[in-house]
Amino acid sequence: MAEAAVVAANLSKRFGARVAVDDISFRVERGECLALLGPNGAGKTTIIKMVTCVARPTAGSLTVLGHPMSQANHTTIKARLGIVQQEESLDPDLSVEKNLTIYASYFAIPRRDAERRSAELMEFVELSEQRRARIHTLSGGMKRRLMLARALINEPEMLVLDEPTTGLDPQVRRLVWERIRSLKRQGLTILLTTHYMEEAAQLSDRVIVIDRGRIIAEGDPATLIQKHVGAEVVEVRLDEAEMPVSLTSGAWRSERVGDVLYLYLMAQTSDTPLLAALRGLDFTRRRATLEDVFLTLTGHGLRE
Amino acid sequence: MLPTLRAFRVWRRDLESWKRFALSFVVAMIGEPVFYLVTLGYGLGRFVTEMNGQPYMAFLAPGVIATAAVNTATFETTFGAYARMKEQHTYAAILATPCSVADVVAGDILWAATKSTLAACFVLILSALLGLITSPLALAIPLVAALVGLMFGALGMIATSRAWSWDFFSYYFTFFLTPMLLFSGVFFPADSLPPWAQTFAWFLPLSHAVAVFRALAAGHVTMATVADLGWMAAVTSLAFLVAERLVRRRLVV
Fold first, then answer.
1. How many C-beta neighbours within 10 Å does residue A218 have?
2. Are B159 and B173 in contact (CB under 8 A)?
3. How far apart, in whole angstroms, are the C-alpha atoms of residue B93 and residue A270?
4. Looking at the predicted structure, is the pLDDT value of residue A269 above 80?
């Protein structure tokens, strides 16, 4: 068994007085997909930047693909990572294919191999027909897929994705997810950040929930939901009304946010008293999701 | 940090991206120096028939060659580099590969120098066709233009490393490039300036470039020419080290 892909121990990053990452420890095992989930400004991107050698840790230790993080190891580490950043960073004056072959040259991949690999990757992300197209003619989804293809050009040992589908249409998002899952099946180690719960649930084996630079929960999505929320959630639309007395106690935990009352049902909650208590109210009953975990743990307040 | 050979991959990226614009570059490249030579050469040359013992246009030509090299490199590592760093996120993309900040900065500066050399060649050929070049030593001008391009490429990169908006560059142009153009002996000999201004001019990179180009065009190479080259080499090295450090501080937080 090879060493873990990422080992972070008591890792911190401060920008002046602001603490972006606060003494966190985690591992990314080989072959797993780990999602860093958190609200905006939680420190996810800073962690990614440290792993990808563009932010220097203030304290703690970090080992990536077996190499301790240090200036001297940057080239070695980066040669074996595939990185998709949040911002679109394609070369606007190059064709789709040239974007890939030029990128390959940074890894010193011989021209022949670069061309073969580019063709395979354009096939993989369904951009073969656009190989001669210029970047500004591509849709947002195509650009994102090309970014993914570009990150795979060096056959990386670990793929690092910072908000891989932010801003994409649902259809395109699903296509990107499908491609990422296919990479996972091939055994690629993946570290991703997202603030989409569904994305974390769809892609990852394990989730680390981060808030204010600290890890507040960790585990596989199903266990996290079970542990922090339960099986089901009832959302009751109360509008301006007071909370009905019938709902104040029962086999559930309740939380009021604005005009909605959330009832987090426990596994043993039986239907009869619940339905009786809800009679006449406007409610929805659904399975608990990672989003409920997230809101339960990080609170419903706005994060801007 | 020092760059590695990977800087040439970055240079190659710049070349590939530029290919589409090559024609417009050539047109602009021929245009600007022609305007200088025609307006000043014919316009001013009518009143100033001779300067430093040369016909005015022959005096002016090396200065215009140097100016073309300076402007080309400057635009490349100010507006060009800023777009790549801030708008297109190209630097971030390249830093996600084995390339270091030193490689990216060096690659872009090398590319700026390449364009400077091309620009200088155009103006040199044009000047030669107009009979303004009298010495075969002028064949060394493209080589010196490469050094001038490296120097101004590195200086422009320092400005870019500090730039937080496009407007920032108007300071660089207004308070550095424009006075430099006027004090560096492009349009008239620097030694006709008062002593304080001559001292000031010594600190301006362009005055050394103009002096070397003029010496080569007229075939009067002296120890002073060697000293000018040494000055430029030293400033170029220093400017590169400063630029790399500042860009690194900005991109690797």
1. 14
2. no
3. 54
4. no
Q: Specify the CATH number of the domain A6-225.
A: 3.40.50.300
Alpha-carbon radius of gyration of chain A: 22
Instruction: Count CB neighbours of A71 within 10 A.
Output: 11
Which candidate from A52, A55, A106 shows the least CB-CB separation from B98? A106
Q: Is A199 helix (H, G, I), strand (E, B) or coil?
A: helix
Residue A250, phi-psi category: left (phi > 0), alpha (psi -120 to 50), beta (remainder)? left
ipTM of the complex: 0.90
Neighbours of A191 (CB within 10 A): 27
d(CA A212, CA A22): 8
- Domain segments of chain A as ranges: 6-225, 230-287
User: How far is it, in rounded angstroms, from Cα A225 to Cα A99?
Assistant: 41
A102-106, A280-284, B2-6, B120-124: least confident range: A280-284
Residues 6+ apart with CB under 8 A from A8: A24, A25, A26, A27, A47, A50, A51, A60, A61, A62, A63
Return d(Cα B186, Cα B203) in angstroms, integer: 15
Max distance between CA atoms of chain B, in angstroms, equals 59
Q: What is the pLDDT of residues B196-211, one digit of tens each?
A: 998 999 999 999 999 9
Nearest chain A Cα distance for residue B122, angstroms: 25
Quote the pLDDT of residue B26: 84
Contacts of A15 in chain B (CB under 8 A): 253
Q: Is there a contact between B98 and A78 if contact means CB atoms under 8 Å apart?
A: yes
pLDDT in the model for residue A2: 61
Q: What is the mean pLDDT of chain B?
A: 92
The count of C-alpha atoms lying within 13 angstroms of the C-alpha of B56, restricted to the half-sphere facing its C-beta, is 17
Confidence of residue A300 (pLDDT cuts 50, 70, 90): low
Please state which of the ranges A42-46, A59-63, B30-34, B183-187 shows the lowest mean pLDDT: B30-34
Q: What confidence tens digit (pLDDT) does each residue in B142-174 have?
A: 999 999 999 999 999 999 999 989 999 999 999
Flag if A102 and B18 touch (Cβ within 8 Å): no
Chain B: closest CA distance from residue A295 (Å)? 31
Q: Is B146:B117 a contact under the CB 8 Å cutoff?
A: yes
* pLDDT recorded at residue A1: 46
Closest by Cβ to A89, choosing from B20, B88, B252: B88
- As given in the structure block, the two tokens for residue B228 are 């000018």
Q: Which amino acid is at B121?
A: C
Instruction: Give the range among A197-201, A217-221, A264-268, B61-65 with minimum mean pLDDT.
Output: A264-268
Interface check A72 vs B, CB under 8 A = no
Question: How far from B69 is each of A70, A156, A228, B118, B157, CA to CA, in Å?
Answer: 39, 41, 66, 8, 16
User: How far is it, in rounded angstroms, from Cα A90 to Cα A130?
Assistant: 14
Whether chain B has a CB inside 8 Å of the CB on A56: the answer is yes
